[in-house]
Amino acid sequence: MTSRLTIFGWHNVESTWCFPVSGSGVAGLEGQLRRLRRMANVVPLEWALDALRAGEPLPPRAVALCWDDGYRDNLELAVPVLEKLELPGTFFLVPGLLSGDDRAWWEIAGWAFARSGRETVEWRGETYPTRGAAGRAAYGRASDRLRVMTAAERAAALEELVDRLAPEGAPEDGRLFLDWEGAREMVRRGFSVGSHTMRHVTLAQETPEDQTEDLRRSREILQRELDVPIRTVAYPFGQADAVSRDTEDAAVKAGYAHGLTTEFGWNGGTTPGTHGRRIMLDPDRGFVATGLSRVTGRLRRLRTAG
Question: Where on the phi/psi map is residue 278: left (φ > 0), alpha (ψ -120 to 50), or beta?
């Protein structure tokens, strides 16, 4: 039987400006992980990816778990749940966020919409409501526009957007993310880490040379600061407009063995090493709510079959 690996990914555990959570995120996450532990074989991510590339067999119903961005609650909430359930996990970190040299634009934009002092704003030829469900949808549209800009273009556009929204207070986005000591604590507690780029740029929107340099610097700094090998990168956003052939080539040039997208699906022996697939989840939504009934149904059938 051909080996397959399903990789599940998350970002946060509890609510952030960008990723709101209804109810208890940690309770929802624990429920998801307990269900996966019962239905599947949860394996270390990089070990499983290496096995696929080498044509070696994986356990039946192989599943790996990972988190992107380095939110502080990954350490404070997700890690204790993983330890309690005795499950491995991998955390993809951004050196620029760990050091505080860069900021999470998606969280700043989310704060600006949530705390805007205006009911609507005009920004780059479009009108954006700020209140209720319409405001949340407008934030999503604005984020989609920001996401496909270069880093330099985005910085100017974000400043303009925040100025027009005129939010009250301060985003305090820095408190949402780990620092280097938190990242070292993850490693000390036995969890794996990988790269999520140097500054969380949308790689495919940058030049091939800049992509390679960003990925190389991220890998080198993470290895130096955490004293562990960094062999896998999770591309930020991970969609087709964020990951190009140049992006995958840059990952190889920068020394990575594996690259992960957010393209929905499973991974097998023929899956390109720099184009792994993941299924991204929210901690407060069940598998049916996130469109994953077919995934858990498949796991259940395979479990029954042996």
Answer: beta
pLDDT digits (tens, 9 = 90+) for 26-41: 999 999 999 999 999 9
Number of folded domains in the chain? 2
Give the tokens for residue 180.
């280097």
If asked whether residues 31 and 144 sit together in one domain, one would say no
Does residue 187 sit within a domain? yes
Residues of the chain with pLDDT under 70: 1, 286-306
Q: CATH number of the domain that 68 lies in?
A: 3.20.20.370
pLDDT of residue 2: 74
105, 150 contact by CB (below 8 A):
no
Residue 303's pLDDT is: 45
Range of the domain at 136: 105-165
In a domain, 50, yes or no: yes
87 in the same domain as 116: no
Residues 194 and 59 reside in one and the same domain = yes
Q: Which of 165, 189, 209 is a domain's end point?
A: 165
Distance separating alpha carbons of residues 227 and 173, to the nearest angstrom: 27
Q: What pLDDT is attached to residue 292?
A: 52
Q: What is the pLDDT of residue 305?
A: 34
The 10 Å Cβ neighbour count of residue 43 is 20
Burial readout 18-34 (b: 16 or more C-beta within 10 A, e: otherwise): bbebeeebbebbbbbbe
